[in-house]
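ok new one. same drill as before - C-alpha cells go in, u give me an amino acid for every spot. 308 of them this time. try not to just spam alanines like last time pls lmao
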C-alpha cells in the first residue's frame, strides 16, 4: 500500500470515529477539505460559493491541536496580511507548550483561549492578542501547578496512612497489655507524618508543573519523607544527648520523641541549623585553642629574648 493510500485510509478511519453531529458540521467539514474537528471555535464561509472558495475556520482537531484554514485572497505585500501572520505565529508559539500530560478538558480549554486569538487575528483585531496569550499562559500555569500538586500529594498519601495505622495498632496493643510503647517507633512514625504535613503545606506555593510525570513525583515525594525520617532520628538522638530542646529534658521520652521528630521532619532547616551550630562551635574551639597556643609561644619567645 502506498503512502497516499495509507493516508487516505487513515483519514477515512478518523472520519468514521468522529462522524459529523449535524448537517452544518458535515457541510463545513467538506467545504474546508474534509477536515475532522473535535471542537469548533469559529467558522465563516458561504457554502453556496464553491469556486473560488472563501472564508476561514478555526478548530481543535482530534489530537487536541489548534488548527485553522483561511481561503480568503490577499494582495501581494498586504501589510494587514503580514501582521495577521505575525500574530498567528505568536499564537502558534504559545500553543507549542507541552500539554499532553493534562486532562483532556484542560487541554481543550487552553486551546479555546488561544483559538479566540486566532479569530481576532483573522479578523484584523490585533490589539487584544497579547492579552489573550497572557490569559492562556496564566490558565495553563495554574492547571500545571494543580496537576503537580495532585501527583505529589497523591503519590505520597500512602505513607502517612500506613504510619497512622501503625501508630493506632501499637496504641491498641499497648492498651491490651500485649506490648510496650517504643518511643523510637513513634518517633519514626511522627517523622513520616511531619514530612507529609510539610509537603502538604508548602508544595502548592511553588511554580511547578506536572510535566515530569507520576514517577518523578513519587521519587521526589518519598525522598522527602525518607529525609524527614532521618531528621527525626537525628532529633531523637540529639534529645538523648541533651543537645536540643532543653524544655523537653526530664519529660516522658515517648512524648519528647514524638514532638522532636515531628518538628525536625516538618522544618527543613531545624536539623541542618543544629548541625551548622555544632560545627561552628567546634571550629571556634579549635581556632581558640590554636590562638592560645600561638599566644603562649609568643610570650615564651619574648621572655627568652629579655633574659638574653
Amino acid at each position: 500500500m502506498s503512502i497516499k493510500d495509507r493516508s487516505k485510509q487513515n483519514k477515512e478511519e478518523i472520519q468514521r470515529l468522529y462522524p459529523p453531529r449535524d448537517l452544518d458540521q458535515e457541510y463545513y467539514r467538506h467545504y474546508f477539505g474534509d477536515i475532522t474537528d473535535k471542537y469548533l471555535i469559529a467558522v465563516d464561509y458561504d457554502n453556496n460559493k464553491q469556486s473560488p472558495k472563501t472564508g476561514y475556520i478555526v478548530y481543535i482537531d482530534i489530537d487536541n491541536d489548534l488548527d485553522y484554514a483561511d481561503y480568503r485572497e490577499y494582495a501581494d505585500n498586504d501589510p494587514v496580511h503580514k501582521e495577521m501572520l505575525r500574530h498567528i505565529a505568536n499564537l502558534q508559539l504559545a500553543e507549542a507548550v507541552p500539554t499532553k500530560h493534562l486532562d483532556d478538558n484542560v487541554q481543550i480549554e487552553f486551546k479555546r483561549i488561544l483559538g479566540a486569538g486566532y479569530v481576532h487575528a483573522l479578523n484584523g483585531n490585533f490589539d487584544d492578542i497579547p492579552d489573550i496569550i497572557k490569559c492562556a499562559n496564566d490558565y495553563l500555569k495554574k492547571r500545571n501547578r494543580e496537576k503537580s500538586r495532585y501527583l505529589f500529594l497523591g503519590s505520597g498519601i500512602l505513607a502517612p496512612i500506613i504510619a497512622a495505622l501503625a501508630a493506632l495498632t501499637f496504641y491498641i496493643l499497648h492498651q491490651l497489655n500485649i506490648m510496650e510503647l517504643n518511643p523510637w517507633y513513634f518517633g519514626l512514625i511522627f517523622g513520616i507524618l511531619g514530612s507529609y504535613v510539610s509537603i502538604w503545606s508548602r508544595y502548592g506555593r511553588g511554580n511547578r508543573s506536572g510535566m515530569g510525570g507520576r514517577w518523578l513525583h513519587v521519587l521526589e515525594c518519598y525522598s522527602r519523607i525518607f529525609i524527614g525520617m532521618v531528621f527525626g532520628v537525628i532529633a531523637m538522638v540529639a534529645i538523648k544527648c541533651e543537645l536540643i530542646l532543653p524544655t523537653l529534658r526530664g519529660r516522658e521520652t515517648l512524648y519528647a520523641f514524638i514532638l522532636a521528630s515531628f518538628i525536625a521532619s516538618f522544618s527543613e532547616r531545624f536539623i541542618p541549623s543544629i548541625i551548622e551550630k555544632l560545627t561552628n562551635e567546634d571550629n571556634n574551639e579549635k581556632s581558640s585553642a590554636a590562638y592560645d597556643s600561638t599566644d603562649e609561644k609568643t610570650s615564651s619567645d619574648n621572655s627568652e629574648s629579655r633574659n638574653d
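The chain has a mean pLDDT of 83. and btw Residues 157-283 form one domain.
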